[in-house]
Specification:
Strand 7 (about 155-160), helix 6 (about 170-185) and strand 8 (about 190-195) form a beta-alpha-beta unit. Helix 3 (about 95-105) packs across helix 4 and helix 4 crosses helix 5 (about 140-150). This protein has about 220 residues and is an alpha/beta fold. The protein has a domain at about 85-155. The strands form two sheets. A five-stranded parallel sheet has the order 6-7-8-3-9, sandwiched between helices. Strands 2-1-4-5 form a four-stranded antiparallel sheet, covered by helices on one side. It has eight helices and nine strands.
Length: about 220
């Protein structure tokens, strides 16, 4: 699917405007990086693209249909998935349980969910890890589980907010490659907010939020 934010303005309460007539269109299958310092609006753009934040003005379009004028439908939200820096996982559960949790929430049987999760764990380089406790994995491996979990529901839009921020450079590069490759395989689009130039280089296009903020 394609997603567009058009002439969007947004501020948190009485703070300065984080976004001022900001426009971005992401085409189906495209991988886009949002770069810039903390406070430049990267996470805000992701929140608006992900239909979690409503702009003060402007519009959001999914497949060229406006969604900000009304409440997003469950179907619209179901096409979007997230990967976060915090790597939220189900403690005390297996790798497979963590990868399959979204599928179970959507009504798949345990066998169906495990089959899909197992294939995705293999795709992100974690074949043979399904029955290990999530706590036994390294930070990079856990983040790959989070990527598998995000892709399990076959999202058309994958949003990643500083997904490598807590990882060492070598692991960060590896996780970024898995994430970009997985998004390309799913034929969806990926928007990633990052401080990491190596992550940005792997994307099709880079949006520098500092330049956006400086526009008259």
């Amino acid at each position: 699917m394609s997603v567009t934010v058009s002439d969007v303005t947004f501020a948190y309460r009485s703070e300065r405007r984080i976004l001022d007539q900001f426009t971005l269109r992401v085409e189906d299958g495209e991988v886009v990086a949002l770069v810039g310092p903390s406070g430049s609006g990267k996470s805000t753009v992701l929140g608006i693209l992900g239909l979690l934040l409503r702009p003060e003005s402007g519009a959001v379009y999914i497949d060229d249909k406006a969604v900000t004028a009304r409440r997003p439908t469950r179907h619209e939200r179901s096409r979007i998935s997230w990967v976060f820096q915090s790597m939220n996982v189900l403690a005390g559960r297996s790798v497979q349980d963590n990868a399959a949790v979204g599928l179970l929430a959507r009504g798949l049987t345990r066998a169906e969910a495990n089959a899909v999760a197992g294939g995705l764990l293999e795709a992100v380089g974690l074949a043979g890890f399904a029955h290990r406790a999530i706590e036994t994995l390294s930070g990079g491996q856990i983040q790959r589980v989070c990527i598998a979990r995000a892709l399990a529901t076959n999202p058309r839009l994958l949003l990643a907010d500083e997904p490598t921020g807590q990882l060492d450079p070598e692991t960060s590069s590896l996780v970024a490659r898995f994430m970009v490759a997985a998004a390309r395989r799913s034929a969806g689009c990926l928007v990633v907010a990052t401080h990491d130039p190596d992550v940005a280089r792997q994307c099709d296009r880079t949006i520098d939020m500092r330049l956006e903020a400086a526009r008259p």
